[in-house]
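Re: the request from the purification team.
They wanted to know what the chain is likely to look like in 3D before they choose a buffer screen. I agreed to run a prediction and write the result into the notebook, where they can find it.
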Amino acid sequence: MRQPTCVIYDRLSRLFAEEAPDHRLAACHAYAEARGWKVVHVATDTNVSGSTPLEDRPGMREVLSWLPRVDYVLAAKLDRYARSVMEFSRLLKAAAATKAAITTADGMVSPENGSFLANLLASFAEYERDMIKARITASKEHFRSRGNHLGGLAPYGYTVTGPLNNKRWAIDETAASIIRECADRLTNHGASLTGLTRELNERGILPPADHARKRDGRKLRGGKWHSTTLRDVLYTPAVRGWLIQAAPGTKRSALTNQAVLDAAGSPVSAGPEILSAEIWTAVRSVIDGKSKGRGAERTGKALLLHVALCSECNGPLYRQRREVSGKDYSSYVCRAGVGKRGIHRPNVVTARYLDELVVGEFLKRFGHMALMRWVEPDGSAVLQLSEVSGQIERLAGNLAQLEPNGTAARIAIGQLNALEKRQAELRAEADHAEGRWVDDGGPLSAEWERRDNEGRRRLLADLGTRVTVRPATPGAPKRFDPKRVSVEFDGPAWWRHRDATEAHLEAITQEEHMQNA
């Protein structure tokens, strides 16, 4: 007699030490053992809300991909599956379409009591989630209106002080003095963000994250200041002592954050100011003035960024853009060979000619190939299968009420045939237990034409492209020399993931094609 199989699932909205899933997983294993079930897989989701759609949870996608091959899905409690009636109903339908059963280790939902109780309990779980959300939202609004710190690290220049329900910002003088010094030098002494960043690193001044770690007695991560880090520290409204929040419709960022306003429209203060209004306005004006093209359309990163390397230090070549009278004179440069801080001889090459050389070699070798795409068994086919099966049942029920030889019946039969064909395709898709490469349609050369620079750079990386550029020979003519460039390819990822013998035969075929081209 075949032993029943099950997959265990657990979900956490937020991960804390006291909420570790170990005890729930242990309860599931014990329940499965008592029932004589074989556990074939354990899937978990961490920092995932119970209202998140099934297909947006990595762990749940694993469960869905296992549904056609197991008898049961097991969780410690019902609310681990979902806190939304709609999402739990979708899971029940997906399980029913594959003949699997949804169960819980606490006995609330078992193979014997059916889906009625499960839906009823899911309704209560959803109600509880809504109540929790409402309480948290109301609490945050209350503390925000009072200017209280709402959690996490305080902005650089501040530390958190005060009792649990009345936390405020106090000035961290060590960090605040750095902010004041940089603001003064930026506005009154012509300093630049790049120069100030380099000086802070040379002086051993800890960046914001490591500064907070040292203050709290935690292990340092060895981080460095970057010009964008310093920009954000100086630009944020937090240096005025104001509580901040993301502007509506934007991600949280020092460039888009805005002050929280009270009922009268004034900024809510969370602590004392580090920079006065006059100095802060001047700092923001300098930063905005030196930000070239903020808000303008970008042309994208260089085609060979992190693909073209320097032969001297194996470091990346960066594209320096230069245009004169409408003509492109841009070049790829190794930063380690530039200026007084250079560690080897200069390595510069004309960007246009290098791009043309690499693209020509790439398309000559791989342009005729079919582009392949890696497909993971993410469970989406199981969800679609349950939906199509439901449509077939409803349409079949309606067909019984139609005139057998009527027009409506013929249309319904045609729809049923199409749905049954799709159902068979989805069943075959759901039965795939492992990821696989599939033909993405069309030759790689056509895909190259469709993509922008960033997409083409990903293609170069996918096919293992390595470009090595050597410095020019002293005294040689100042023109592009292809002999300085070495272009190598590891081959497509779908070669490298194949059986070694198959990959070798494919490589031979490619070489023959190259010779005949």
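For the purification team: Residues 114-145 form the longest helix (32 residues).
Please add any questions underneath this entry.
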